[in-house]
Amino acid sequence: MLELLLFSSLNGVLYGMLLFMMAGGLTLIFSMMGVLNFAHASFYMLGAYFGFEIAKHLGFWIGLVAAPLLVGFVGAIIERYGLRQVHKHGHVAELLFTFGLAFVIEEVVQMIWGKLPVDYRVPETLDFVAFTMFGTTYPAYKVFMLCIAIGMFIALLWVLTKTRVGLIIQASLSHPNMVAMLGHNVPRIFMLVFGGGSVLAGLAGVIAGPALVTQPSMAALLGPILFVVVVLGGLGSLTGAFIASLLIGLVQTFAVAVNVSLSDLFQFLPFNPKNGSVLGDLWSVTVAQVAPVIPYLLLIMILIFRPTGLMGNRET
Amino acid sequence: MKRLAIWPLAALVLIALPFVFDSGTSLTKMSLMCIMAVFALSYNMLLGQTGMLSFGHAVYYGLAGFMSIHALQILAGPNASLPLVMVPIVGAFTGLLFAFVFGWVSTKRAGTAFAMISLGLGELVAASSLIMRSFFGGEEGVSADRSKLALWLGLDFGAQIQVYYLIAAWTFVSVITMFAITQTPFGRMANAVRENPERAEFIGYSTQMIRFISFCLSGIFAGIAGALAAINFEIMNALSVSGAQSGAVLLMTYIGGVGHFLGPILGAMLITALQISLSDYTGAWMLYFGLMFILVVMYLPGGIAGLIMMHEPVFRAGLLHRLIPAYLMVSAPALIWLAGAVAIIELAHHALVKAATEGPQLVLIGLEFSSRTMFPWTIALGLFVFGAVSCGKVWPRVKNAWSEIHSLMKQS
Amino acid sequence: MRRIKTILGAMATAVGLSLGSTGALAQQTIQVAYIDPLSGGGASIGEHGLKHFRYIADQLNTAGGVLGRKFEIVPFDGKTNPQESIVQAQKAIDRGIRIITQGNGSAVAAALSEFVVKHNARNPGKEVIYLNYAAVDPSLTNDKCSWSHFRWDADSDTKMAALTNFMKARTSVKKVYLINQDYSFGHSVRAQAVAMLKEKRPDVQVVGNELHPLLKINDFAPYIAKIKASGADSVITGNWGQDIALLLKAAADAGLKVDWYTYYAGGAGGPTAIKQTGLADRVFAVVEGHANVPNPPSQAIESDFRPRTGQAVWYPRAFNQMYMLSEAIKAAGAVDAKKVAQKLEGMRITTHNGGVGYMRTDNHQFIQDMFIASFGPLPAGAKFDEEGTGWGWKTLGKVEGKDTELATTCKMSRPY
C-alpha cells in the first residue's frame, strides 16, 4: 500500500509537471491575448517529433535545445502571419483558426512521420535505474524529466518577476489595454509570448516523447486535459496553473489505482440493480474506469461555481 | 410573396431528386445531406443566431439517436404504438430533455466559458459511453431493424427510397420551423443577445433566459437529426456523441456560413458530399478539410453563403454584369493556383505516404507521374507560383470593379 | 430566386460528385471490395491489409484466375467508422461488387454484418457475402451469425481456449494476473480467461483482474505496481496498439519479471516495443501462424512478400480466405453469393502454414491450428526477424484445430 502511494505520488507529480509545462504557456497566451490555443498540444507533439528527428542525426542533447527553439519559431510564424490576420474577426474566429491548425498539424505530422508510433528512445546516458524502493525500480529518466520541469518553472518565475520584459508581460496579463496605451509594442509582446509558450510546449514534448509514446494522436490525447488545467487554475495566474496541473496529475494517477465502485462501498444495502441496465452500469463502475472523466467533472464544477478558476482574478 | 414561393419549389426539388439520381449511393448521400442540414441548422441557432460557440453539440444529436434506436427496438412488431414516421418525435423530446438539463448548467456562462463547458460536457458524455454499456452498446453500438415496425400506409420503410422520402419530409418540416423561429421576435432578440448582450439586458430581456431557450430549441432539432440518422443507418454507436462529430458539425456550419440561414445547408451538403466521395480520389482528404477550414476562417469569415450573399445587393441593383469580366479574368489564374496547390499536396502525400504502398507512380487527372523525380515537382511548384503571381496581378481588377459598383450604388 | 439557384447549384455539385462515384459494372474481373481504414489513425494497418490482398490476388491471377476471370481488389476507405463503412459498402454494391471483406474493428464488423443481412433480405437477386478476416467479436459466429458472414480469424474465445490449453501443461504458471482494455473485447477476454482457467487448471490462482480505459493510459506504472504487489508470475492480456507497447515499456522500467500471454504483441509496433524493453522469450502471442513455422511453401511466400511490400506477412489467414474463395467460385461456377456461400461451408484446405483447416458449417467459423509463439533472439535455422529488430517468433506450443472448436449458439437460416 505504501509502495503504491509513493510511486503513484511520484508519477502523479511528474505527470502534473508535464501538464504544467504546457499549461503554463497556454495560460500566458490565453490571459494575454484571449486566444484559447487549440493547437498548443500540437506544439507539444511537434516538439516530440522534432526532438526525435534531431536526436536521430545529432543526438538527444542537441535535440533537447534545438527542438523547442524550432517549435517556438514555428509558433511565432503562425502568430505573425496567421493569428494576427484572424484577430480582427474576433475571438471566435481565433479559436476556430487554432482548431483548424491543430487538425492540419496532425495531418502533416502523419504524412511526414507516418501513422505509427516512432522509436524515440531514452538516451543511453540516462537509461539507468535511479533508485529502488520496495522492490520496484524507478527510472532515472523520469527523475530527469522532473528536474527539467522544476527548472523550467523556476526560470519562468525568474523571467516574469525579475526582468523588465517579464514585468511588462505580467502587466499585460491583467491590464493589456493600459500597457498598450503606455507605448509598449503589444503586438510584438504577443508574438514573444506566443513563441515563448510554444517553446515551453515543445520542451515538454522533447522530454516526454521517449517516456510516453511518440505518435500522431499525442496531441488529441492531451489537448482537452490542458484546457481543464488552464480553466481550473484561473486566468492570469501562473501559480494557479501550477496548482491545477499538480492536482489533475495526482488525481488522475491515483484514481487509476483505485478499484472501488459504488457496489463495493454499498454492498450491505439490499439494493442490487440488474447487470444490464443503466443503473446497473453506474452502480458497478469503478473509480479507475471513471478516472479519465474526472477532470471534465472538475471543469464543469469550476465553471459553474467559480468561473475565475482557483486562483484567477479575471473572468473569461 | 416571391420569397414564400421558395418553399413549395424546394419541396418539389426534394420530391423530384430521386427520379434523376436513383442509385443506392445517391439516395444514401441525399438522405445524409438532409440529416446533416438539419443538424447544422440546429447548430447555427446557437452559433450564428445567438452567438454561442459550442464544442459539444453532438451530445444532443447522438443521445437522441441512441434513444431513437432503442425506441426502434422496442417498437418492433406489427402492433407497435408508434409508426416509424413518428419516431423522430422521440428524438426531438430526447434532444429537448438533455438540452434542458445540460443547458441550464451551461448557459449560466457565456463566451469562452460556455465553449469550455460544452467541451467538458461533450467529453464527459463521450467517455461515459464506454461506462454505460447497456444504453450505448459498448463499441459495437446498438442496432435495430426499421422494417420491423408497424406498416404505415402499407410501407415498411425497408427500401432506401422510402427512407429518403421520410427523411426529406422531416427535413422540410424542420427547416421551415427553424426559419420561422428566426423571423419571430424571439429570433430577433437572440440576434440582439449575439450582438450586444449588455444592451439587451438593459432593454429588459434576460440574456440567460434567451440563451437557455435558444439552447433548448437547438436541442430539439439536433434531436430530430439524430433520430433520422438512427433510422437511416439502423445502427448508432459512440462516435455520434464524440468530439469528432461536434467538430464536423462546426466545420459544416462555419464553412457554409454562419451569417445566413442558407449557410449551414450549403455547408452540410458540400462537406457530406466531400466526405463520402473525396476519399475515393485522394488519401489526403483530411488535410484538404483542415486547410479549407483555415482558409475560410482567415479570408472568408462569412462562409460560402456569405460570399454568395455579398452579391445580392449588386444583383438587386442590376449591376452584376459589371463583375463578370473581372471574375472571368481572375478565374484562370485562380484555377492554375489551385491546381498547383493540389498537385503539391498530392505529390507530397504520395511521396511520403503512398509510395511505400503503391510504388513510385502516381496518377493525377489521368496522367502518370513519379513522385520521386524532380519533373512533376517543378511543374507543381511552377503552377503554384505562376498562379499566385498572376492572381495577384489580376486581383486589383476585381477590387476596382467592386469599388465602381459601390460608388454607383451609392449614387442611386 | 437566387436562393433557388443556390440550392439547385449546390445540389448539382453534389449530384455531380455522386454520379462520379457510380462506375461501370466490371464483368471481366471478379471484384472484391476491401473496406478498411485507409486514412486517419488506423490507416497503416488498413494499408497493410490491402497489400496482403493485392499480393494474393496477383498470385491467384498469375496462376490463371478462376473461371477465366481475374481477381480485382477494390479498396474503400471505411475510416474506422461504422456508419461510414456502411456508406462505402453501399457504394461497392452499386458498382456491382458482391464480395466484401473487412477486418479492422469489431464495431465496423458488427455494422457491416447487420447491413449485409438487411441488404440481402431487402434486395433479392443482389445478395452479397461478407468475408471477415480479422474482427474477433465472438457474437458474429454465435447469436449474430448469418449465412452471408464467414470468419477466418479465430475468435477471441477460441484464442483463449488455445492459450489456456497451452497453459494447462506449464507447471510454472501458478498465479495469473489479468489486465485488459475496458470494452467488449477486453471483457470477453477476461471472462473467458477466468472460466477456462478454472476448468483446465483449478489450482492456478487469479490474483488480479484489471480493466483500464481503452487507448487512454499514458503511463502504466500504477498497474505494474499492482501486478508486482500481487505476486503474479504470469499476465494474460488482450491489449493491442499503444496499450500493449506502453504496458511492456512500464514493465521493463519497473523491472517486472513475469511471462506475458498476449493476443496482439505481434501487432504494429509490438516487436519494437518488446525489443526495446529487453523482455526476451517472456512475451507470448497466440497466432494462427508466424514467419518461422518450418513450412517451405509459406516461407517461400514470406521471402517473396517482404521485399515486395516492405513488411512482413501479418495475416496468414488472408491467404486461406482468398484461396478458399477462389475454390468456392470454381466449384459454384459463378460469382453468386448464395452458391459461393454454399460451397464455402464445410470446405477443407491445407492452411498457409501447412496444417489442416476447415470452415465450420454450423457457424461459418474457420478452424485451424493455433500456435503459441514466443518473441526473442532468433534460434538457429530461423530466417525471419520482425521490424528490423533482429528478434523473431519461435513456436513454443501448438494446439490442433479440432481442439479449439467451441460450442456455438448460432442458428442461421440459409437460402440454399
Q: SSE layout and pairings?
A:
The complex is a heterotrimer of chains A (316), B (412) and C (416).
Chain A lengths: L1 H32 L6 H19 L1 H28 L3 H23 L15 E5 L2 E4 H23 L1 H11 L1 H6 L4 H26 L6 H16 L4 H20 L4 H4 L12 H7 L2 H4 L3 H12 L11
Antiparallel strand pairs in A: 1-2
Helix pairs in contact in A: 1-5, 1-8, 1-9, 1-10, 2-3, 2-4, 2-8, 2-9, 3-4, 3-8, 5-6, 5-8, 9-10, 9-14
Chain B lengths: L5 H15 L3 H27 L7 H18 L11 H20 L4 H21 L1 H4 L5 E2 L16 H24 L1 H11 L1 H6 L4 H27 L1 E2 L6 H14 L5 H20 L3 H15 L3 H7 L2 H5 L6 H36 L2 E4 L2 E4 L3 H38 L1
Antiparallel strand pairs in B: 1-2, 3-4
Chain C lengths: L1 H20 L8 E7 L6 H20 L8 E7 L4 H13 L4 E4 L3 H17 L6 E4 L16 E3 L4 H14 L5 E7 L2 H17 L4 E8 L8 H10 L3 E4 L4 H13 L4 E4 L7 H8 L5 E5 L8 H14 L6 H17 L4 H8 L3 E3 L5 E4 L6 E2 L2 E8 L13 E9 L17
Parallel strand pairs in C: 1-2, 1-3, 3-4, 4-5, 6-7, 6-8, 8-9, 9-10
Antiparallel strand pairs in C: 10-14, 11-12, 12-13, 14-15
Helix pairs in contact in C: 2-11, 3-4, 5-6, 7-8, 8-9, 11-12
How would you describe what is shown here?
The complex is a heterotrimer of chains A (316), B (412) and C (416). Chain A is mostly helical. Helices cover 73% and strands 3% of the residues of chain A. Chain A has helices at 2-33, 40-58, 60-87, 91-113, 140-162, 164-174, 176-181, 186-211, 218-233, 238-257, 262-265, 278-284, 287-290, 294-305; strands spanning 129-133, 136-139. The two termini of chain A are 42 Å apart. The mean pLDDT of chain A is 82. By secondary structure, chain B is an all-alpha fold. Chain B folds into two domains: 3-299, no CATH class; 312-411, no CATH class. Helix content of chain B is 75%, strand content 3%. Chain B is built from 17 helices and four strands. In chain B, the strands form two sheets. A two-stranded antiparallel sheet of chain B has the order 1-2. Chain B has a two-stranded antiparallel ribbon with strand order 3-4. In chain B, strand 3 and strand 4 form a beta hairpin. The radius of gyration of chain B is 24 Å and the shape is globular. Chain C has two domains: 24-154 and 294-368, Rossmann fold, CATH 3.40.50; 157-287 and 371-403, Rossmann fold. In chain C, helix 3 packs across helix 4, helix 5 packs parallel to helix 6 and helix 7 (221-230) packs across helix 8. The longest helix of chain C is centred in the first third of the chain and has 20 residues, at 2-21.
